[in-house]
Design a protein that fits this description.
By secondary structure, this protein is an alpha+beta fold. Among the domains are: 41-91; 98-128, no CATH class. It is built from six helices and three strands.
Amino acid sequence: MNIHESVVGMKPVLGVKTRSMKVCQKQHEMKAKRVYCHISKEKKAKLIHTVLKQKCKIKKIAKDLNINYATAKTILHCHKKNLINMDEQTDSKRAGCTLNKNDSKLYVQIKVGEKVIHQYEYFDAIKRTP
């Protein structure tokens, strides 16, 4: 009998676990680690209103609404982040500038869709302002 036959033909020994046996066992033992609860929009609105408008403590309001403190903090953090993103989007507006090829002057055109509402010479407007 050579070495390969002895390894392949070996019977499993009681009390000895191989690495592959441990991996299979861990896969069977895996369970959901956390149970997530969904907070209603009404509770979120109450939390945000009382903390931001009435300046109450997050812990106290979370306890009154039966919400986990960490969840309440996350809701407020996401709300503040969304407010900042909305403010940035409304502040930035796009303005266009066109250069007419027939003369070397720079004109500013104000358009709504394809319709030109107002057009004026850029440098002429700068010279007029004191």
